[in-house]
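Postdoc handover notes: sequence design on the structure in folder B. Input C-alpha cells:
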C-alpha cells in the first residue's frame, strides 16, 4: 500500500514538473509557489483540483459542456494551466473557451479559487463574439 502511494506521488510529480506546454500560454507561477509550500505534494494536488474546479465553473457559467469547451490547457497537466498565484491563498486561472466543434476562442474566463476552501469566484466571463460579459 505504501509503495502504491509513493508510486502515485512520484508519477504525479513527474507529470507535473516535466510537462512541456503544447503552445505558449499565460503565466503559471502557481507551480513554483506550491513547490515552496510547507507540504508541497498536498499543495500540488490541491492545485490540480483547483484547475478542474475552475474549468467546471467556466462550463457552468457558459451553459454547460454542450455549449462550451474550455481551452485544452485546462484539461491537461496543471503545469500547462494558465494560473496566477495571487499571494493571498488564492489562485486565478484565466483561459479561453470555444463553442463545441469550433476552434476559434469565443470566451475568456477568469476564475479565482481559494486554495484552502476551494471557494469559487468567476471574476470575468467575456463573450469574445460580442465583446461583453456574460
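Designed sequence:
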Amino acid at each position: 500500500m505504501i509503495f502504491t502511494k509513493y508510486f502515485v506521488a512520484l508519477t504525479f510529480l513527474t507529470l507535473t514538473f516535466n510537462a512541456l506546454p503544447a503552445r505558449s500560454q499565460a503565466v503559471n507561477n502557481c507551480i513554483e509557489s506550491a513547490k515552496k509550500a510547507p507540504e508541497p505534494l498536498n499543495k500540488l494536488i490541491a492545485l490540480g483540483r483547483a484547475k478542474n474546479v475552475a474549468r467546471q465553473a467556466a462550463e457552468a457559467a457558459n451553459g454547460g459542456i454542450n455549449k462550451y469547451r474550455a481551452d485544452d490547457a485546462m484539461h491537461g497537466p496543471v503545469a500547462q494551466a494558465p494560473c496566477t498565484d495571487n499571494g493571498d491563498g488564492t489562485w486565478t486561472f484565466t483561459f479561453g473557451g470555444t463553442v463545441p466543434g469550433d476552434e476559434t476562442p469565443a470566451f475568456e474566463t477568469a476564475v479565482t479559487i481559494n486554495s484552502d476552501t476551494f471557494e469559487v469566484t468567476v471574476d470575468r466571463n467575456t463573450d469574445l463574439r460580442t465583446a461583453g460579459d456574460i
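Context for whoever picks this up: Residues 15-25 have pLDDT under 50 and may be disordered. Don't rerun without checking with the PI first.
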